[in-house]
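Sample entry (169 residues):
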Amino acid sequence: MIKHSLSSWYADPLSVDEAERQLSDISQQLKQAGDEDYLPLRILEVSARFWLDRDISGDIENLLATCKDDNCQALIKLVYGQLLLSRKLSGAMDYLQQGFRQASQLFAATEYFEVMQRHERLKHLVLTTQAAAGRTLQELLQEADVIKALRGKADHHCDIRGGHEDTVG
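Predicted structure, serialized as tokens:
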């Protein structure tokens, strides 16, 4: 049985070679997989396809349509949100929030706070419709912390009512 956790990070970037190798391995494993290994293998397969710049939105919709329990639904939404976020794509935080809400009763207490704090930090990232180069979780967290710190300094030092009396009278 393949282990999976709702609090894990599944979206660290893969090179094209790694993604192709993973897809090949997974296709073999899926042929022999039992019911309990099917979902984790499909998630790995979709992740590999994502790193090959393939559109996986239909795969995600199919997985969500076939999984009926909260654990399965939450895992798919969390992984999809992570994948989108790893390339700083719009919509990532929506999926992460949906997955977190769905998983909130399934987490152990420490996992709940770990994921909540992670999402709280990551929400500072600037997301766009153009995919950025893939980033690891650590890189994303560092960038989010820098953005938060810079925004905090800007908010602290900027007078909204003007603040330029010395130069404009």
